[in-house]
Design brief:
CATH superfamily of the largest domain: Alkaline phosphatase D (PhoD)
CATH class of the largest domain: Alpha Beta
Largest sheet: 12 strands, mixed
Strand order of the largest sheet: 2-3-13-10-9-19-18-17-27-28-29-30
Number of domains: 2
Shape: globular
Number of helices: 10
Radius of gyration: 23 Å
Number of strands: 30
Helix content: 10-25%
């Protein structure tokens, strides 16, 4: 029989969990569905405000209605934990029901978002599901369990905002539906005050067509990570053979429609290495341009042709809808992904959107100096810029990390003829200067910018005018206000042809640039203590060879607390001891 959502909520309350709170996702696309995220918490736990975005606290929730019809599940309380157990009577669903694995993300000190998808070609409506969260990988004693709806209008995904967990703790989770069990996932909450060391992986730019995700495989195997920061270009929108030819795309054409975007995410999430990364670690993600289309901005994109691909605003709304459906991100206002995460008093992590929400169109090349210097233009938009200023000034953490998409530091062309790329903050110089003024005027120390997008590796000291020897001393770091670490591509290609050998020229033209690698694919491990932040680059041997998944340490750079000066590390930072067990394989 079918029951109303209100009846299901009453049943959930009887299981010892509080009511599910739902907020709708706008831009639902052609099917007219109401995509939602369910907030599940232990009894008596209030929503946390650790994760704040767009000026709103935590999750923007609203009460539910009786308009949604849900399938039922027979559950019975049992076991030492007193929580319900999943029971199913009927024909089991397909063996590959959970072919897209599981994922978690947006960790708070008391909660995390959990995700999965049920794939059943015979399904015609919502599917009744179930979830469990445990402190141990064998689920011997669970801390949460209850119904979890597979929402047809949300492309048959489950997304739960689980609250009431303990800070700085590793948990294991799994889902059930149609008599099948998902893989076991592993996640971790953010710590409370007093936590002394954090480890993040930092990555971006995974072009499926350019190779294999060996780097994801190695990140997944690192048991001591607190989270993975993905800085965008998680998917690419091109058709097969248009940009890279190592692997073919689904669909074979460029993605434009709702079905296209869903199919492309489905293909990515079936990749075993990406699935394993999501299974083992919580992710904190932002998009870049290729989650929509190349060189995107608020009102258009280089790779969008209205005459043949329709209205850009419609395409952007579809891309956002599918991103929210498929990514373990806590939903906010439509199109808003900038948000903050508090890791005790050690780190305030501010994830920005420098690509879409307020970005003006790029200048017409590096010669368009009048546009570049226009103070009215923005890469953030006024609302996000004010949000960033407020968060920076209010922060009392030891370190302020800015996760964002495009290079923040000035980058002079290796020929010495001007800036290299107007798509970066160099193309929005007054906006960058305003951010630097906030740092300088408020005496903010220990600011670290984390960047993706450019498929290459860079380590900068960030100064307002790094080319003026009176304003910045490259020998001592005097005059610098922050540092920037740029992550290479997971598989996306670096600088082509003769440009691959331009590192010495870039170093000569940019005294604030301390190290670079323009070609090799990889990722960063960011090790954070009270005393210092160390960025260690790890590079894959060959992402085009499926049989060669070797990854090795390449270079490390350190910034000490209190001074934005980079020094080269003699070795990678050590692993954290006593890392919690990885999630077991099936």
């Amino acid at each position: 029989m079918a029951i109303s959502r209100r009846q299901l909520l009453r049943r959930a309350g009887a299981f010892g969990t509080s009511a599910l709170l739902v907020h709708p996702l706008s831009g639902c696309g052609d099917d007219g569905g109401d995509a939602t995220t369910d907030t599940v918490s232990t009894a008596g736990t209030e929503d946390s405000t650790d994760g704040t975005g767009g000026g709103a606290s935590g999750t923007d929730t609203a009460t539910t209605t009786d308009t949604t019809t849900d399938a039922t599940t027979d559950t019975t309380t049992g076991g030492d934990d007193g929580l319900p157990r999943y029971e199913y009577e009927g024909e089991p669903g397909p063996a590959d029901l959970f072919q897209h694995g599981v994922a978690s993300g947006d960790p708070l000190s008391d909660g995390v978002v959990l995700w999965t998808r049920a794939t059943d070609a015979s399904a015609t409506g919502d599917i009744e599901g179930f979830f469990e969260v445990s402190e141990s990988p064998d689920f011997g004693f669970r801390v949460l369990a209850g119904p979890a709806l597979v929402v047809a209008a949300r492309d048959y995904t489950i997304k739960l905002d689980v609250r009431g967990l303990e800070p700085g703790k590793t948990y294991y989770y799994r889902f059930f539906a149609l008599g099948r069990q998902s893989p076991v996932g592993r996640t971790r909450t953010a710590p409370a005050e007093g936590y002394a060391r954090l480890r993040f992986a930092v990555c971006s730019c995974s072009s499926y067509a350019h190779g294999y995700f060996h780097n994801y495989k190695h990140i997944a195997a690192r048991a001591d990570l607190d989270a993975v920061l993905h800085l965008g270009d998680y998917i690419y929108e091109y058709g097969t053979g248009e940009y890279g030819d190592v692997r073919a795309y689904e669909p074979a054409t460029e993605i434009v429609s709702l079905e296209d975007y869903r199919t492309r995410y489905s293909q990515y999430r079936r990749d075993a290495d990406l699935a394993e990364l999501h299974r083992q670690h919580p992710t904190i993600v932002v998009w870049d341009d290729h989650e929509i289309t190349n060189d995107a901005h608020e009102s258009g994109a280089e790779n969008h042709q209205p005459d043949t691909e329709g209205d850009y605003a419609t395409r952007k709304a579809i891309a956002y809808q599918v991103y929210e459906e498929w990514m373990p991100i806590r939903a906010q206002a439509p199109g808003v992904i900038y948000r903050a995460f508090k890791y005790g008093d050690l780190v305030d992590l501010l994830m920005l959107d420098t690509r879409i929400v307020g970005r003006d169109e790029q200048a017409a090349g590096t010669v368009d100096q009048a546009t570049i210097d226009d103070p009215a233009r923005s890469i953030l938009g006024a609302e996000q810029e004010q949000w960033l200023e407020d968060r920076l000034v209010e922060s009392v953490a030891d370190w302020r990390l800015l996760g964002q998409q495009v290079m923040f530091a000035q980058l002079i062309n290796f020929t010495g003829t001007g800036i290299f790329n107007v798509d970066q903050w160099d193309g929005y110089a007054p906006n960058r200067q305003r951010v630097l003024d906030v740092i300088a005027d408020n005496g903010l120390a220990n600011v670290v910018v984390l960047t993706g997008d450019i498929h290459s590796s860079w380590a900068f000291e960030v100064a307002p005018d790094p080319l003026d020897p009176l304003a910045y001393d490259p020998a001592t770091g005097a005059g610098a206000l922050a540092v920037e670490f740029v992550a290479p591509g997971i598989s996306s290609p670096g600088f082509p042809g003769s440009l691959a050998n331009a590192t010495p020229a870039f170093l000569q033209q940019n005294p604030h640039l301390k190290w670079a690698d323009l070609v090799t694919r990889g990722y960063i491990v960011l090790d954070v203590t009270r005393e210092q932040v160390q960025a260690d680059w790890y590079f894959a041997a060959d992402v085009e060879d499926p049989g060669n998944d070797a990854v090795a340490f390449a270079s490390g750079w350190v910034v000490q607390s209190g001074t934005p000066k980079l020094t080269e590390a003699t070795a990678p930072a050590s692993d954290k001891p006593d890392a919690p067990a990885l999630a077991p394989s099936a």
